[in-house]
Amino acid sequence: MTPRAASREAGNGPTEHPGGTLWDTRRRRTHRDIRRAARELALERGVAAVTVDEIATAAGVSRRTFFNYFRSKEDALLEAPPALAPDAVERFVHADLPFGTALADLLRGHARDIVRDPDGIVTSHRLVTGNPELAGALLEMFAEAERALISVIERRLARTGEDIDPRLAAAITGCVMRVAVERRVATISPHAAGTTADPETLVTEVDRVLDGMRAVLAR
């Protein structure tokens, strides 16, 4: 019986929690514990040498519970880029600014969301660098994010009529973010777990990459 079912059977709803219900808090904790176990095992042994059963055991959950949270071992190891914030999307779509200026503002806001988990950024980079077999899964995550951005750009273009190729704009945006994140990772010590990153550091890297791109295109 699940905790939620047990709660209903006892006649009590889930206990409220400042960040949501107690059930939500437990789900977030379980998700975090499974991902942490997967990453620790993969960093220690290599991705190919780790099984889903071993990850589940290390996290203290069943194999079935593992698949309630993640589609695969690779899914547990790699964290997809966060979705664009809805309010930021609406500002971009409706901003009375040149396309490039509005897109740069959207990128800066997204950079602040990405850097909220500096340990996760560093660990993901270490995993992909040391385990090339993860590259395909990571590319698919980036492709999903790019498709979502294309849809957002198309919404703006439908309103403004700007002569912009949405696929090209989304691809360039992805390259800017990738280079900015890689530069940021290079400045974070792999032994600095638990440190708090200043979100503005990645924003600064985004601006530097944008400046570099403009310089290249101007030549």
TrEMBL record:
Which residues lie within the region annotated Disordered?
Answer: 1-29
Q: Which domain of life is it from?
A: Bacteria
For this chain, one GO molecular function annotation is: transcription cis-regulatory region binding
Q: Which parts of this chain does the entry mark as a DNA-binding region? A: 51-70
TM stretches of this protein: none
What UniProt keywords apply to this chain's record, in alphabetical order? DNA-binding, Transcription, Transcription regulation
An example of a Pfam family matching this protein is TetR_N
Q: Could you tell me which Gene3D superfamilies the record lists for this protein?
A: Tetracycline Repressor, domain 2 (1.10.357.10)
Domain HTH tetR-type residue range list: 28-88
This chain belongs to which protein, by name? TetR family transcriptional regulator
